[in-house]
């Protein structure tokens, strides 16, 4: 079967189309969950985005069907062996795509606990491994942005779950390939990559220069995860995360969800902490 590499624009169009439909499904689920009572809704609401995505992709990708976005952009999924991915590979992709972030948090925390309780590892090694694990967990958003920078440059794997599973996108019809904005997106990718690398190096040097982990954690709690600078005009989302006022509003222009926990966020519900230092 003759296939052609999907352009970055084709993939972005597909993902945006799917996200719009998933948001619509989530609104229906939210309305249904509210009918169960406020107490039950409060328990369920943080799981609704994951449940909606899992439901949508189970009915499409996991059943070897095109998503609405893929059909709109004219792309299909291919595995690393240049064939249609198996159901098991799609299942791996779905687990990582929906639950990859909480899974990463849980694994790193469990590793920290195991290392700190181990009697076979020297204290110096414990301290070093724990420091590295905390660095990765604290800067996970920057590593995600690092991946997206590579996607903008290479145009191959849209999400980290795609990269791990080896699932990429291809076109069946070459005339549908959209390369109009490829050079601009690639330039954006290089700029983003430079910024992310600078932020990671700066955070690593800052961590290295800190003698006390408690002091490090205290100072890091004052840093905005979006601009990686000390927060100014601190505000809070309803899910309890703190950002610079202008940073969170800029982020919500592209996706109305919390950058940390992916909880849906309404810009009008952002709380400005007037006397917070």
Task: Describe the structure in your own words.
The chain is mostly helical and 277 residues long. It has two domains: 4-221, no CATH class; 222-277, Zinc/RING finger domain, C3HC4 (zinc finger) (Herpes Virus-1, 2-Layer Sandwich), CATH 3.30.40. It contains eleven helices and six strands. The strands form two sheets. It has a three-stranded antiparallel beta sheet with strand order 1-3-2. It has a three-stranded antiparallel beta sheet with strand order 5-4-6. The termini are far apart. Mean pLDDT is 85; it is low at 214-218. Its main location: membrane. It catalyses: S-ubiquitinyl-[E2 ubiquitin-conjugating enzyme]-L-cysteine + [acceptor protein]-L-lysine = [E2 ubiquitin-conjugating enzyme]-L-cysteine + N(6)-ubiquitinyl-[acceptor protein]-L-lysine. Pfam families: Pex2_Pex12, zf-C3HC4_3. One of its GO terms (molecular function) is zinc ion binding. InterPro entries: PEX2/10 (IPR025654), Pex_N (IPR006845), Znf_RING (IPR001841), Znf_RING/FYVE/PHD (IPR013083), Znf_RING_CS (IPR017907).
